[in-house]
Specification:
The protein has 20 helices and 4 strands. The protein has helices spanning 7-20, 33-40, 44-56, 77-88, 94-115, 118-131, 138-154, 159-179, 183-205, 212-234, 256-269, 282-289, 293-305, 335-360, 365-379, 388-394, 396-399, 404-423, 428-451, 454-478; strands spanning 60-61, 69-70, 309-312, 316-319. A hairpin with a 3-residue loop joins strand 3 (309-312) and strand 4. The longest helix is centred in the last third of the chain and has 26 residues, at 335-360. It is globular, with a radius of gyration of 24 Å.
């Protein structure tokens, strides 16, 4: 497992974005190291390493006793070359980010359009009028397009989707920086974007919602091709090396040990290890993940704190996530857990049909057999692994037809679902009713999977997810928590 998200590089990428977006004018100065350390919640040593990297690539000049001077100029060919090289140094290319954005937002935008009321529709019309004004520059058109997406997704009341959209904004702003350097490309994108915005508003006004997702998909992929063609011409080598920072994770700032902890949770939730069984020893985990013994111990300590495992000297790490006692009272451990769960579940529900149709194109007989065996093994276990079978059935969407970035996003969502279920053991009776109601759909889903009948399989998965959502709402009612978050179906 490669090491991702080194802290000073995250700060470096964020400052690069701000510099390339002209937040700091040429010959102006960055905030002081102390101010940046407070802003990013890091140490002065981290900011010092960031400044060294920015100076090495020629974006700033640092003199002892003075603030860092910004050297980037949009009109300077050397500065533009540095922008291209920075783009080339990202682990997730613009293509990967756009594909993920399309996959996660197309159906979400359609769903939001179905939910918007008259006031929200008027807001969308106002945004479209400003974007389609003949004097509106292209960078403002792009801004209004993002504002349109944000307004529609806000109707779903899904904060997680909005966070993902904001993370994608970073690449949208970079795309615009590239576009405005080429007049022909600028005009072509401007025409496409304005036509697209008018079409979206027209379909919402006429309540023609069924084709909105397809419209978003076609526009996004068409725009991506424009940008990629330009980048291929202007950048000699577009080879990704570093990682795009997403500011949301299960554990906060993602780092190596929490990445390993997340992966172990995923393996546990998929039924690779059962309650009462031992995890591999530290030495084997070191070899599997290619990290030090200290990193493995910190990851295991995190699972110990969650009550998922119990480490005993001489015995190793034993799984206790089902056998550990439930809370004394029936309440959600944290209200935020409920919101996170609903947002994660809603995002999965919105995107299941597209991702499953993609995955079925690449399914192998071996993968179908492995999935069936894994689900049957869990169904036959002594403890019902509520939610887990849904994760296994949906994991097909991760192993087939999706890109690495989408894979990472959805695995983090599944980890959230597992942790939420683990923290909510006081609701066994609700879980029992939910499991009994789901069982026919689980059985039929396996039949449809073997028959490769994707549409019937999608119907079964939708029923399972809807029942999970219903049982979770019942838990919230018991805890006197009321979530005004719509469920897609």
């Amino acid at each position: 497992m490669p090491r991702h998200n080194i802290l000073y590089k995250n700060v470096y990428h964020n400052l690069c974005t701000r510099i390339f977006a002209n937040e700091f004018d040429c010959c102006s100065h960055l905030p002081s190291m102390t101010e940046l350390a407070e802003e990013y919640h890091v140490s002065l040593l981290t900011i010092h390493s960031t400044f060294k990297l920015l100076q090495d690539v020629g974006l700033i000049h640092v003199t002892r006793g003075t603030e860092a001077e910004v050297l980037y100029r949009k009109s300077n060919p050397i500065s533009i070359q540095k922008l291209h090289q920075w783009l080339a140094d990202r682990l997730y290319t613009m293509s990967a980010v756009y594909h993920m954005a399309v996959r996660l937002t197309a159906h979400s935008v359609e769903y939001g359009a179905r939910l918007c009321d008259d006031d929200e529709l008027q807001r969308l019309v106002d945004i479209a009028d400003k974007a389609c004004c003949p004097d509106c520059p292209i960078n403002r058109v792009a801004f209004y397009l993002i504002e349109l997406y944000t307004a529609l997704i806000s109707c779903t009341k899904n904060d997680l989707l909005l966070e993902l959209l904001r993370a994608g904004d970073e690449y949208m702003s970079i795309s615009m920086l590239l576009v405005v350097q080429d007049q022909a490309l600028c005009e072509k994108y401007n025409e496409r974007a304005r036509s697209f915005i008018k079409s979206i508003i027209s379909k919402i006004e006429s309540k023609d919602f069924d084709s909105i997702a397809c419209l978003v998909n076609n526009f996004s992929l068409g725009s991506l091709k424009l940008f990629e063609d330009y980048i291929k011409v202007t950048t000699s080598e577009f080879c990704p090396k570093q990682e795009l920072l997403f500011k949301w994770t299960v554990f906060g700032n993602e780092n190596l040990y929490s990445e390993i902890a997340n992966d172990l949770i995923m393996r546990i939730s998929m039924g690779e290890f059962f309650d009462g069984e031992r995890l591999p020893c530290e030495q084997k985990l070191q070899l599997q993940y290619g990290v030090s013994a200290k990193t493995i111990r910190i990851a295991l300590a995190a699972l110990n704190e969650c009550g998922i495992i119990k480490t005993v000297n001489g015995l190793g790490s034993v799984l206790t996530y089902l056998s550990s006692p439930p809370p004394a009272e029936r309440y959600l451990p944290d209200a935020a857990d409920g919101f996170n769960f609903f947002n994660s579940l809603q995002l999965i529900m919105l995107n299941v049909p597209t991702m499953l149709r993609e995955s079925f194109l690449f399914l192998t007989d071996e993968e179908i057999s492995t999935t069936e065996n894994c689900v049957n093994r869990l169904l036959g276990s002594k403890d019902k692994a509520y939610y887990v079978y849904g994760i296994i059935l949906l994991d097909l969407t991760l192993r087939n037809g999706t890109e690495v970035l989408t894979n990472q996003v959805f695995r983090q969502l599944f980890t959230r679902i597992f942790l939420f279920r683990h923290k909510s053991k006081g609701y066994r009776d609700i879980f029992d009713r939910h499991f009994d109601a789901c069982l026919p759909y689980i059985t039929d889903a396996l039949v449809q999977l073997k028959a490769r009948n994707v549409e019937n399989y999608i119907c079964d998965i939708k029923q399972i997810l809807s029942l999970i959502a219903t049982s979770t709402r019942q838990m919230c009612a018991v805890s006197a928590l009321h979530y005004d978050i719509p469920i897609p179906y």
